[in-house]
Amino acid sequence: MGKRWLFGIAMAGCVSGLLVGTPVKGQAESKAKPGDAARGKTLFVRNCAGCHGAAGEGDGYRLLGPDPANLTAPATKKKSDAELLKTIHNGKPNMPAWKRNLSESQSRDVLAYVRTLGK
Ligand code: HEC
Asked: In angstroms, what CA-CA distances link 65 with 26, 68, 71, 95, 112?
């Protein structure tokens, strides 16, 4: 019983994944999966690079108050996924909250891309 339920949820996830995003070579998508950096890149360029810069170095532009974080800095790299996801969801002074515009899995995709920056 329990297992059937989980399977149902997993299938629903797959189907909605296919409807919303580009199917990633037929791979089933599960909620717990780490983000997809390739998809994250598109989202980053569109939503984040204006402030954080194309390379994530915080050089998009300067605002009054805190500057966009340099996402390649050691200070950011050593923060946990949970911490950075929280920032992406809730925003910061000078950074908009993304929870209304990015789904859970999109946030993880963006974070996966952020993790590739500065390498
Ligand atoms: C309007 C400008 C702006 C946009 C757009 C923006 N950010 Fe930011 N972001 C900032 C600023 C400013 C900070 C630093 C805030 C602070 O230090 O208080 C920040 C901080 C962060 C941090 C925290 C870094 C750390 O070390 O804690 C992450 C992660 C981050 N941004 C990711 C993103 C992602 C992903 C996007 C796109 C979905 C994005 N940001 C879009 C301005 C922006």
From this structure: 45, 9, 17, 11, 27
